[in-house]
């Protein structure tokens, strides 16, 4: 049972009481327009922020831009940005583009280190804690970050709504009780308020964005950016990191052909993909692998052996290749899991490829080449498509935030940049359309038709 942290109510976010159109953001929200920013030399603990929308705030004359102005120019809005979950190529360019866009409009960006963990670990009454977890970002800070992969803000799998007792910061230890996990959301809200963050931009997969949805429900203006190699976030055709992962997977499959063919073996290549097999399926589709085993369709090992032996016999070089998702399962079996569940309830996946290879060898007598691609798919710099999408998602997210169009997730839908309600992230993961893209009897990609489909087929 989750216990909820209790803190002084004054630490909670204040709610704007002015109705639209007096305040263009409506009611029951945390209004970026109403805030008088603290001076740079003020500490978070004594920011002296205003508690209601200023009656003097108006929008610009002429065609509405959505930017909010006061008598002295644009109201000062602060964006908080974080990266959560596994890293993917394209995160640093995305952060850089958000910072540059926001600063072009005369506003500020706070980088939050280690995902949601940075907010959990911040003590707003301790300047050292603040400095360790929150970073002022401007164009000079992010000038070169896009030249490397990963995320310079770092990442974590922290879920503030389910914090294990051993992970509760020392300064909060006397405010929780029981075995946990503990819901530290009230503390997170206090940190957001104290840091002067008006809009949050979390970049992550379905787990990270699920807490972004929680922030939205708590009244924090939030714009989500989807990223995951699995490409399984609902509401968008594309997530940052997917193209580079596929590019690396295809290259790996082709490179492995030389050794597999030279020794006349069967190669079993394990790829990322917990609940969605798109990474494995598209890698197999583009690399010409003989078979693809995905989480959506449990596989019969005897049937797989039969097919791979036939594939090997037909190949002039006498070898066969099968791609397998880490979340794939044997018919009647379970996922290969190990270790303790993380804050989102997931245990470490991996090993199904090795088990499958051993079963194939046992049943066929064929020698096996087993390779787990793993972190090679998420390492290094992004390809051009991920760089393009990451940059454009960032620009769109910044514009939505400054326009006040929050509670959204940026997306690609039918080839066009768009946005969808952030609530779609709570509808589960997006899986492979087996009927359209997969031959479930023969365990291979089978695209029924292409016309009218999005770039990555669904």
TrEMBL record:
Necessary cofactors: Mg(2+)
Similarity annotation: Belongs to the phosphofructokinase type A (PFKA) family.
Pathway: Carbohydrate degradation; glycolysis; D-glyceraldehyde 3-phosphate and glycerone phosphate from D-glucose: step 3/4
Alphabetized Pfam families for the sequence: PFK
GO molecular function, one term: metal ion binding
UniProt-listed GO biological process terms: canonical glycolysis; fructose 1,6-bisphosphate metabolic process; fructose 6-phosphate metabolic process
PANTHER family in the record: ATP-DEPENDENT 6-PHOSPHOFRUCTOKINASE 3 (PTHR13697:SF52), PHOSPHOFRUCTOKINASE (PTHR13697)
Residue ranges of every copy of the Phosphofructokinase domain listed in the record: 78-400
Record-given protein name: Phosphofructokinase
SUPFAM superfamilies: Phosphofructokinase
Region (Disordered): 37-70
Keyword 4Fe-4S: no
Keyword Magnesium: yes
Organism: Ornithinimicrobium pratense
One GO CC term, this protein: 6-phosphofructokinase complex
Bias-annotated ranges (Low complexity): 45-56
Domain of life: Bacteria
Keywords: Cytoplasm, Glycolysis, Kinase, Magnesium, Metal-binding, Transferase
């Amino acid at each position: 049972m989750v216990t909820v942290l209790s803190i002084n109510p004054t630490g909670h976010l204040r709610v704007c009481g002015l109705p639209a159109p007096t305040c263009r953001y409506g009611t029951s929200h945390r209004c970026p327009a109403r805030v008088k920013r603290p001076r740079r030399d003020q500490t978070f603990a004594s920011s002296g922020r205003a508690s209601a929308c200023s009656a003097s705030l108006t929008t610009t004359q002429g065609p509405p831009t959505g930017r909010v102005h006061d008598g002295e120019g644009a109201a000062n809005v602060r964006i908080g940005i974080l990266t959560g979950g596994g890293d993917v190529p394209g995160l640093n360019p995305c952060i850089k583009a958000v910072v540059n866009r926001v600063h072009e409009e005369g506003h500020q960006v706070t980088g939050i280190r280690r995902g949601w963990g940075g907010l959990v670990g911040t003590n707003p009454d301790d300047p050292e804690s603040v400095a360790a977890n929150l970073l002022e970002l401007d164009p000079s800070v992010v000038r070169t970050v896009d030249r490397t992969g990963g995320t310079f803000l770092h990442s974590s799998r922290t879920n503030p709504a389910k914090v294990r007792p051993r992970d509760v910061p020392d300064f909060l230890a006397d405010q929780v009780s029981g075995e946990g996990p503990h819901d530290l959301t009230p503390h997170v809200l206090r940190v957001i308020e104290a840091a002067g963050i008006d809009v949050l931009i979390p970049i992550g997969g379905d787990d990270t964005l699920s807490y972004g949805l929680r922030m939205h429900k708590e009244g924090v203006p939030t714009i989500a950016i989807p990223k995951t190699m699995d490409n399984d976030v609902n509401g968008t055709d594309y997530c940052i990191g997917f193209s580079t992962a596929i590019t690396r997977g295809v290259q790996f499959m082709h490179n492995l052909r030389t050794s597999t063919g030279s020794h006349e073996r069967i190669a079993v290549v394990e790829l990322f993909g917990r609940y969605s097999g798109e990474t494995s399926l598209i890698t197999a589709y583009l690399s010409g692998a003989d078979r693809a085993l995905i989480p959506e369709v449990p596989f019969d090992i005897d049937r797989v052996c039969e097919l791979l032996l036939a594939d090997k016999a037909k190949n002039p070089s006498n070898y066969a290749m099968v791609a397998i998702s880490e979340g794939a399962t044997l018919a009647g079996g379970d996922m290969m899991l190990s270790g303790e569940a993380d804050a989102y309830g997931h245990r470490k996946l991996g090993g199904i490829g090795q088990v499958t290879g051993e079963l194939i060898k046992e049943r066929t007598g064929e020698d096996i080449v087993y390779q787990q691609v793993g972190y090679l798919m998420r390492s290094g710099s992004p390809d051009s498509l991920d760089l393009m999408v990451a940059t454009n998602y960032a620009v769109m997210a910044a514009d939505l935030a400054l326009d006040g169009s929050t509670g959204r997730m940026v997306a690609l839908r039918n080839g066009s940049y768009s946005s969808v309600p952030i609530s779609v992230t709570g509808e589960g993961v997006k899986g492979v359309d087996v009927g359209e893209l997969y031959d479930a009897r023969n365990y291979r990609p089978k695209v029924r038709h292409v016309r009218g489909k999005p770039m990555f087929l669904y």
